[in-house]
UniProtKB/TrEMBL annotation, chains A, B:
PANTHER family: COPPER AMINE OXIDASE (PTHR10638), PRIMARY AMINE OXIDASE 1 (PTHR10638:SF40). This is Amine oxidase. Its cofactor is Cu cation. Residues 240-644 form the Copper amine oxidase catalytic domain. The lineage of its organism: Eukaryota, Viridiplantae, Streptophyta, Embryophyta, Tracheophyta. The active site is at 311 (proton acceptor), 399 (schiff-base intermediate with substrate). One of its GO terms (biological process) is amine metabolic process. It comes from Deinandra increscens subsp. villosa. Residues 223-232 have a biased composition (Polar residues). GO terms for molecular function: copper ion binding; primary methylamine oxidase activity; quinone binding. It is an enzyme of class 1 (oxidoreductase).
Length: 647, 647
């Protein structure tokens, strides 16, 4: 009864929300309920243990979407049919279903028999986490350690794949002690791993290490409280200068669509920038979102080796989205958007305030010049920078990922990833850094705690459509030349090279000779004849260093390069493959790219990986200060002139 | 008489400014006047054409400064003697003079006979720029081109050095047409270079190119006006939370000193951060500032080859500092500091509002975490980021350099360089990009205009004193290891290596294997036994690509590496040598480093070069949007725990 009332409330809330339609609107609660109803009243209802693992819009074809958008959004007859893609499990099988929401029917259905599993549902994770507390063996073990089991929290971790020929759905639980702290992750109970079989929802094995297991570290100093040094941001009178109609945002010279799903979290679609010189909206980004994350920990010991997470595919960034807190997560002038998804039971769930949107007055200077060359005058002109930020936060267990899309009036889109939250730590009996031997896999960062070395690779799917679908990828390299007949001996020049195929576009950055990476539209030129384009300005480069034949690396082989460009294919969205849980590397970006398709003057997709190598330090305890990295997509010969100026 | 009144006004202004003393306070107008008086009443007064090229505080020894600061700033008997270093020219010679301002005497004096010259004075530059308008040949030439000489502005450019065995002080003038535009630099008059001998202040030669010289481009579309799209920043009630006593700034957990001189511009000194855990102020940075810039243009043709500027040494960033404009250059909550320096005549000159200081409410998240592991609760904690920005802008002709020092409560210092202003352009008869041949040295970026390819290398002098003078430089490298006895095959670990000598610390960045560059104090450990340190987080790497034996590269040979560490030596401040004008590479960072001094547990200086390779695009016209790069100095095991939290 409770659930019915909840659905009713959500449905009513939604119906009374004035929203402008867009063909890429995420599934709304009504639609999620409709999907649930269609499936639970079909033959599928009889499947044992029916669970919903993925419920998302089945995207209409790009052509249909663009056609509808270009027809002034008015012609209801051309609004693309709403369809959904659903992945369920039941009877030990994974089924992919396409539903037609217009006539309420199942359009197609088949059993997936390949490697890997769909994302774990929250229900499964919660049920697994509660299992130890019904286990006498567990209770006995912890009480022998002098721990009170009512103060223990166990968290489920995905188990990866290490060459097994047959896999089962499983998680490993690690447990933490929360007596005298709210910083659960700072109190790891070492030497205790609980293997859970998800299908049977039973503990398979409790693995304990013997003597020499370090005891629980002290709770003192683990709580985090703000220093209180920061004033609240100044009280400001804000005239918000953007509009939000449903999922459509309009701000200054930008318009775009903000979607949300359980897997990617926030999705930016159909972003166009207004060109006041041409007096037209021009297309930049068809669709952009986080595609996958890879977080391998650098500890090969028996308790830690498996921690090599593909968070987006195994858990979901939308599933991990938090309700944003005003004045902590977003400033006072922010507007908020809720997120909806299906639970493991197929029913709609709401994440209130999953996304915030705000104007950022950076205090920076967008452009300026002081001219002293006019006799008797000093002329200073310029403009302050104001950006529009679209933000979500995904908290995946201990780590908090701050995900920003920043739109600039210059036509740039900046994408930033901020890492904060709590480290994964390992207790140690050592108390001084010089007692630590190398094989402990990370530095001593707090009393009796090692911060385990690890990486974060956040891979973005960037379906740029610069002035249309047909684009090319250009590498602009610097070439040093000998100067002839000059007092100078040398200079550099730019040599541009169009990548012919996917192989040509797979890049490991870090050399000084690559100047620019560009996506250009070879069919559109500026009035001066330059190829219209956008540049990828990369951040600090980091690629995965693990050996190519190591199992986690096989699953995330795309992390050996920061940049990939692929031919557009609607089904190629998830860099480590769709079935990431226990995947074996048979699907994903590196596999698709093996076809080495032509990418010249084609609809192409850019993939960029933001990477961090993180060897922790004491400042990361008990909670980490935000570490930020990212990239920028910047117009280069896209406009006839600086778009920040009046024409 | 006018000058006397001006001095009086400045002196009175200064006297009535309540200011706390600091041994590194820049020379105040009284002191500058005193220096002028001492010299003009000494035997030096009789030198023909006496001009003042450099007038700066002769820094007291670090020991004296630190002693006075540690004695609670109260003991006047230990306040270091105020001394000044002055470089004058007269009778064709360069003289270095040390003055004692306490007893008003000349302490030492000698004639400099090495290569290169001191910075050009503004008076010299202005006089040189006016010479053409007294030249009949010039007037005749421009009128034959149909140009009105009263609409022409000529700018002086330094001439560099190209292997000449004897050099004279000289500039080359390039001229621009300002009829119908305020964007002077957008209207270059090509094929006309005027060589001026500075000592005789006469035109030596007017060099014209013959037929085929491209005509003046059109003025249409060259003016820059704001789009007006940006709202003024929101009206805020600000409670400023920093104090400014003279040059001393106190803000939250930071205190530091902001100085100014004609050469470096803004100088940050004696920056300490409060450690609430230890309840003490801890030293981080003794002195930091821009040391030199190198801006070579990539056009070896006869009219352009010499454009290879060392702006700081040839002109001075303080000399080029502009008066900051509220709501364009700095937000509404900024406080301002004036800058003082000596003119070519030795008299004090004021740059009103040369520096601004403001709190930046970025909208970013300093740290956060959402904890779901406590039954029945979702706990979100966190804090907004608030920084303190110290900013100046140096406009060196066409380019505007925005120079920010950003202090964070995390203990980080971020240093940013923003490039904006107007490109150096070359007229062309071509109107379409595909007509441009490679040898034109840059792309077509506006009608009949080539934007010449060029670099910017901004080199910072960073005398970090982490918890004291004796520091070491540590490279933390990533090393991939084979895992044994594990389902995993590999992992990375961190191998730290202390640089023994200056050679070991000279680095060209860009490889994926360098994790961290650290300055540590090997004499101070955290309670856990980690070396106390700060990390250099670098930005996009760029080093100079010109051939090693090319003359401009010989002068700026240090730009082949981003990172240098040298043994501290008070006299080693200017990366391309003190006498940068027409320098021949016999002084500077690369030369000092040849001694390959030990840098282990020594007072050491870190040098970092922020680099840009700039191949322009249409968006850079008629004024460039700001392009930003920089670096961060971040505490790593400096604090016992995250300093953003309460203890």
């Amino acid at each position: 009864m409770d659930i019915l009332i909840k659905i009713l409330v959500i449905t009513l809330q939604f119906l009374f929300t004035k929203s402008q339609h867009h063909p890429l609107d995420p599934l709304n609660p009504n639609e999620i309920s409709q999907i649930h109803q269609i499936i639970t009243t079909s033959h599928l209802a009889s499947l044992p243990n029916l669970t919903f693992h993925f419920v998302d819009l089945e995207e209409p074809d790009k052509k249909q979407v663009l056609h509808w958008l270009s027809s002034n959004n008015q012609n209801h007859s051309t609004f693309p049919y709403r369809q959904a893609k659903v992945v369920i499990r039941g009877g030990g099988e994974t089924r992919e279903i396409i539903l037609d929401l217009t006539n309420g029917s199942i359009k197609s259905e088949h059993v997936y028999t390949g490697d890997g599993y769909p994302p774990l549902t929250l229900t499964e994770l919660l049920r697994a986490a509660r299992l130890p507390f019904k286990s006498l063996q567990f209770k006995d073990l912890v009480s022998r350690r002098g721990l009170n089991s009512s103060e223990i929290t166990c968290f489920p971790f995905t188990v990866g794949w290490f060459g097994e020929s047959i896999t089962r759905r499983a998680v490993k639980l690690s447990c933490f002690y929360r007596e005298r702290t709210t910083n659960v992750f700072s109190m790891p109970i070492e030497g205790l791993t609980i293997l859970v079989d998800i299908e049977s929802m039973q503990i398979t094995k409790i693995i304990t290490s013997g003597r020499g297991t370090p005891p629980l570290p002290e709770a003192e100093g683990t709580d985090f409280q703000s220093s209180g040094r920061t004033n609240p941001s100044p009280h400001c009178e804000i005239n918000r200068s953007f509009t939000m109609n449903g999922h459509n945002i309009n701000w200054k010279n930008w318009r775009f669509h903000v979607g949300f799903n359980a897997r990617a979290g926030m999705i930016i679609s159909t972003a166009s920038v207004f060109d006041s010189g041409r007096n037209e909206w021009r297309r930049v980004l068809y669709r952009g979102h986080v595609s996958e994350t890879f977080v391998p920990y650098m500890d090969p010991s028996s308790e830690w080796y498996y921690k090599t997470f593909l968070d987006v595919g195994e858990f979901g960034f939308g599933r991990s989205a938090v309700t944003l807190v005003g004045l902590t997560d977003c400033p006072g002038n922010a507007a908020y958007m809720d997120g909806y998804m299906a639970g493991g039971d197929g029913m709609p769930q709401k994440v209130p305030r999953a996304i915030c949107i705000f104007e950022q007055y950076t205090g920076d200077i967008a452009w300026r010049h002081t001219e002293v060359g006019i006799p008797g005058k000093v002329v200073t002109s310029g403009e302050q920078e104001v950006c529009l930020v679209v933000r979500m936060v995904a908290t995946v267990g201990n780590y908090d990922y701050i995900l920003d899309w920043v739109f600039k009036q210059s036509g740039s889109i900046k994408v930033r990833v901020g890492l904060t939250g709590v480290l994964e730590m390992k207790p140690t009996t050592e108390t001084k850094a010089n007692q630590i031997k190398e094989q402990i896999y990370g530095p001593l960062i707090a009393k009796n705690r090692i911060g385990i070395n690890h990486d974060h690779f956040i891979t973005y799917y960037l379906d740029l459509d610069i002035d249309g679908e047909h684009n090319s990828f250009v590498k602009a390299n610097l070439k040093v030349k000998k100067a002839k007949g000059s007092p100078r001996k040398s200079y550099w020049t730019v040599v541009k090279e169009s990548a012919k195929t996917e192989d040509d576009a797979r890049l490991r950055l870090g050399t000084n000779k690559v100047l620019d990476l560009l996506l250009v539209n070879p069919n559109r030129k500026t009035n001066l004849g330059n190829d219209v384009g956008y540049q990828l300005m990369t951040g600090q480069p980091a690629v995965s260093l693990m050996m190519d034949d190591d199992y986690p690396q096989i699953r995330a082989s795309y992390t050996k390069y920061q940049v990939w460009v692929t031919a557009y294919n609607k089904s190629e969205r998830w860099a480590a493959g769709f079935y990431a849980d226990r995947s074996t590397g048979k699907d994903g970006l590196a596999i698709w790219s093996k076809r080495n398709r032509s990418i010249v003057n084609k609809d192409i997709v850019l993939w960029y990986t933001v990477g961090f190598h993180h060897s922790p330090c004491q400042e990361d305890f008990p909670v980490m200060g935000t570490l930020t990295n990212g990239f920028e997509l910047r117009p280069v010969n896209f406009f006839e002139r600086n778009p920040l100026l009046k024409n």
